[in-house]
Amino acid sequence: MIRVLLADDQELVRAGIRLVLKHAPDIDVVAEASDGPEAARLAVRHQVDVAMLDIQMQGTDGLCAAERIAGSAPSVRVVMLTTFGEHAYVERALKAGVAGFLLKDSTPQELIQAVRRVASGAPVVSPQITRHLIDRYLDTEEKPADPRLSRIAELTSREREVLAMVGTGASNAEIGKRLHLGEGTVKAYVSRMLTKLSCANRVQAALLAHDARLLRGGG
């Protein structure tokens, strides 16, 4: 059973997410918090597996709560709940090692699958967030060379194709449709590709794909 903590200063939002997760037989919402300090305390007290935190809460924001949880309960996997317009927070959290990012308007199935994937150790980033971060990155004029670029040569041709599509912000379902592969097969390719490139998540891999010019036929 995956033990989950929900933290959002809006009770209605917590109720909606709780209702969605209630339909998953392997997920149990064991605690709820309305601010960051309470979330950090409850994550430890209830020994949760996954903490789903709103990025912006009154008092202490979700990022501060995530940092506190990382210090007091490093085994807890943190998922940040965000809306469009908060991507500066997302970039900061990526650097802090947060396990996942989901838009608040994600579908019920996306929420459930995200909890399961994060609990299993896999990173989760909404494709919409990936696309936005890529656009912001491409607008940056000066970018230091990434030492991981050389590892792209170790990828198979199929893995390079998958990497190029991840670079566009495509979801696994979109990649599967384009390459005529099952979604499970795509997930396996993405997992191997991330491991070979030492990337923690799809966003890092997408930025590498852009640096390697894979989307323009180069690299």
UniProtKB/TrEMBL annotation:
Highest taxon of the lineage: Bacteria
Pfam families documented for this protein: GerE (PF00196), Response_reg (PF00072)
Domain spans labelled HTH luxR-type: 148-213
Record's keyword terms, sorted: DNA-binding, Phosphoprotein, Transcription, Transcription regulation
Response regulatory domain ranges (all copies): 3-119
InterPro entries: CheY-like_superfamily, NreC/VraR/RcsB-like_REC, Sig_transdc_resp-reg_C-effctor, Sig_transdc_resp-reg_receiver, Tscrpt_reg_LuxR_C, WalR-like
Modified-residue entries (4-aspartylphosphate), positions: D54
SMART domains: HTH_LUXR (SM00421), REC (SM00448)
Keyword Transcription among record annotations: yes
Protein name according to UniProt: Response regulator
Organism phylogeny: Bacteria, Bacillati, Actinomycetota, Actinomycetes, Kitasatosporales
